[in-house]
Hints:
The structure is a single chain. By secondary structure, the chain is of the alpha/beta class. It folds into 2 domains: about 1-170 and about 215-240 and about 280-285, 3-Layer(aba) Sandwich (Rossmann fold); about 185-210 and about 240-275 and about 295-310, UDP-galactose 4-epimerase, domain 1 (Alpha-Beta Complex), CATH 3.90.25.10. It is about 40% helix and about 15% strand. It contains 10 helices and 13 strands. It has a 7-stranded parallel sheet, sandwiched between helices. A two-stranded parallel sheet has the order 7-10. Strand 1 (about 1-5), helix 1 (about 10-20) and strand 2 form a beta-alpha-beta unit. Helix 1 crosses helix 7, helix 4 (about 85-110) packs parallel to helix 5 (about 140-160) and helix 8 crosses helix 10. The model has no long low-confidence stretch (mean pLDDT about 95).
Amino acid sequence: MRYLVTGGAGFIGSHIVEELLRRDESVAVLDDLSTGHEHNLADFRAECELVRGSICDPAALLKASRGADYIIHLAARTSVPRSVEEPLDTNYVNVEGTLRVLQAAREVGARRVVFAASSAAYGESPALPKVESMTPAPISPYGVSKFTGELYAQAFFRVYGLETVSLRYFNVFGPRQDPGSAYSGVLSRFMLAILEGGVPVVFGNGEQSRDFTYVENVVDATLCACEAPDAPGKVMNVGTGGRITLNRILQVLGPICQRPIHPQYELARTGDIMDSQADITLARQLLGFVPRVELEEGLLRTWDWFRKNYQKI
Length: 313
């Protein structure tokens, strides 16, 4: 089969590309390298086609999507704080870009589009765990844009018969996550600060909780969603089904990193939610999804990768 992975040079995308190539599939990557990095593909760059361009560029999108049986759509502006600062850009990439990907899938006759949606669609609802039947109530431009992408995906399924699946990812972490920005995932920033002998910064009191999901589990669910017969038209959570506070995860990281961790607390950020936890019953039923890598094992693997790639002390 031929796969197109938009955002395939990014953190999650590069892991999906790597696994597809391991399965001897044909893979094209579309990435404008604004947040992704070609070095994420370095170990298998010769085995995939890389088209440098944006999902908002019709020519680049058409070039990358030709012949695609499946399109895994990850390209996005993925930061909640950045979306608060730049709502128009977030909407342009995440909404118009997703619409263009869906239209391109129709034009090239792709079998299915798997869309990387987000747990941010649930917003600040206090009910836990989050179940797909809950009414979405996003509180950030990012969450709104991702939820809008889901609506477009479902509309294309109903109106045009294009098979689409939306997966609401919950706080993915792992090797290759870029820690170099204030917008980066919290665990990557924690690990970089520890490696540099600095102080991890926690926004808020640290009692906010997250369903941290190791990237290998997300890859499994995403590739299952490409072929699961009952998945088209559905929205599903992808997480572990558990949650842990930031304060507790720093306690867990201490023995892994073999050093004491004393965080610095700063004001909570606008748009951040307090608690997040996935109910993964539907993904179990429709995809056969079972998270294989537990949190502590994922942290060990991630720390080992960061230590090898960012060690400075």
